[in-house]
Amino acid sequence: MASTTLVCDTEPWKDLKGHVKEIEKTHLRDLMNDVERCKSMMVEFDGILLDYSRQRVRQDTVEKLFKLAEAAHLKQKIDRMYSGERINSTENRSVLHIALRAPRDKVICSDGKNVVPDVWTVLDKIKDFSERVRSGSWVGATGKVLKDVVAIGIGGSFLGPLFVHTALQTDPEAAESAKGRQLRFLANVDPIDVARNITGLNPETTLVVVVSKTFTTAETMLNARTLKEWIQAALGPQAVAKHMVAVSTNIPLVKEFGIDPANAFAFWDWVGGRYSVCSAVGVLPLSLQYGFPIVQKFLNGASSIDNHFHSTSFEKNIPVLLGLLSVWNVSFLGYPARAILPYSQALEKFAPHIQQVSMESNGKGVSIDGIPLPFEAGEIDFGEPGTNGQHSFYQLIHQGRVIPCDFIGIVKSQQPIYLKGEAVSNHDELMSNFFAQPDALAYGKTREQLLGEKIPNHLIPHKTFSGNRPSLSLLLPSLSAYNIGQLLAIYEHRIAVEGFIWGINSFDQWGVELGKSLATQVRKQLNLSRTKGEPVAGFNFSTSTLLTRYLEGDSGVQSNSTMLPKM
Ligand code: F6P
Q: What subcellular locations does the record give (predicted)?
């Protein structure tokens, strides 16, 4: 039954609204002096330490957030997700990415059917196929080993696998397993992305993995047809069977495209695109590059967090705490953005991935029952690894707008370096910043401190830092495949918690449809104008003018013959 109650009408929400006045009287400088408070804001699980003492909260704020969770039926919503109910109501689907990393003997049902055996059938098929490709028992059309992989996909069929690949690249164990192999990602429909991705590759030694849940995404399908042409032009039409495989929920379309369904790796409609990195979407390309055993460790890390999220009380539950604190920052303190700041270059693609998971999930304007929200849901996510971000946008974070920050630090570097005679190792140098920045944000620097330093009067306003800027710190023991899986699952569940509290559907994405359908109209016009010389018609003045100018220019393309990049 649809309920028309919005979370903002509940007593705990109103109570938190009133509580903001109390918090506005506090400063993190003082809150941080309360050691008991800080102790209560340290949470540890499976090697990961969360410190949220630099959030603008007191212990009673956290209690109030738990009351909000109760009013929003958070526990019941999590249970409904884990029990395979169709909580994605606008698409009538269950949300079961947790089943993708479950151990073989776990029972997770969708429509009364245990889906875990199906998951493992595909994982076993990936293990077998990737081992055959890596060992050279599956070879290309000319008998050569397929040492290079181009994964074609966009959005959730790209960003998650790219994040994990980038994170594993310098892990010693993963790097050793990937020796002599390359994994590239072709996402943008921009022909430049095709050119860049095939440069230096030989079709004879390349395997193309077409990754698309629907197998209808315009960008992916054109890129797939382009690389099919690239392979066929070099090796003949029969080569497709050896050089192209697919990952999709839509096996009939895979077949229609010309890929043998025996070379297709399935997943299911209960896996949302942006939650699909643990399905064949990520597992196939990553296993081809690193071998299945490493990817299995990644899945195990995610599974560990799945259990923690489902079974741990809210006071010690990392994703729940993170989700509630985000709701507090967005909906009560009015901070619309969140900066994701990993102090690890290996996590350089983490923020772009979380951008999609978070903004496509929670960027909604109506409740799950279709009622317009009288408050803003979702947040603007962005980020860069430290220390690069410090030399870019941190100025704004320190003295401009208040942006709650997630600092992610690693105890043991994937690639330790120490130069004899240096004060600290290179990783310690990096981590000095990880520890310093949150305090700089929280404490700031006062006029009195500056006067004590004999700073000239006219510079004091410029050198003052207000402080009281919230952040949280996550410290991971290392950045192994297992830890990468943990980090992924923490953020996936945190984002679900936010959506559950806001009462929205975090698992649909209708907002991406309108632009797609308008592009169809433009594509039709471009075809008619280029092939039949028809004038631009049916668009507003602005679009017509731009389109006409575009069509008048030299495109460098002759539509009567195939053209591939010249690089
Ligand atoms: O951007 C919209 C979207 O539907 C994403 O949710 C999805 O990850 C992406 O497109 C790619 O879709 P597909 O895997 O079906 O090609």
A: Cytoplasm
379 catalytic? Reply is no
Distance between CA atoms of residues 324 and 340, nearest Å: 17
**Domain 97-297 falls in which CATH fold?**
Rossmann fold (3.40.50)
534 is catalytic: no
User: Is residue 212 lining ligand 1, measured as CB closer than 6 Å?
Assistant: yes
pLDDT for the residue 567:
74
- Model pTM score: 0.97
* Three-state secondary structure readout of 205-260: HEEEEEECCCCCCHHHHHHHHHHHHHHHHHHCHHHHHHHEEEEECCHHHHHHHCCC
Residue of minimum CA distance from atom 1 in ligand 1: 155
217 lines ligand 1 (CB under 6 A): yes
Q: Which CATH superfamily is domain 7-72+315-475+495-503 in?
A: Glucose-6-phosphate isomerase like protein; domain 1 (3.40.50.10490)
**Ligand 1 lined by 272 (C-beta under 6 Å):** no
Pocket test for ligand 1, best of 154, 247, 249, 514 (most atoms within 8 A of CB): 154
| pLDDT tens profile 103-161 | 999 999 998 999 999 999 999 999 999 999 999 999 999 999 999 999 999 999 999 99
Q: Tell me: pLDDT of 2 over 80.
A: no
Helical (H) or strand (E) element with 268 = none
- Write the pLDDT tens digit of every residue in 511-551: 999 999 999 999 999 999 999 999 999 999 999 999 999 99
C-alpha span between 473 and 435 (Å, rounded): 9
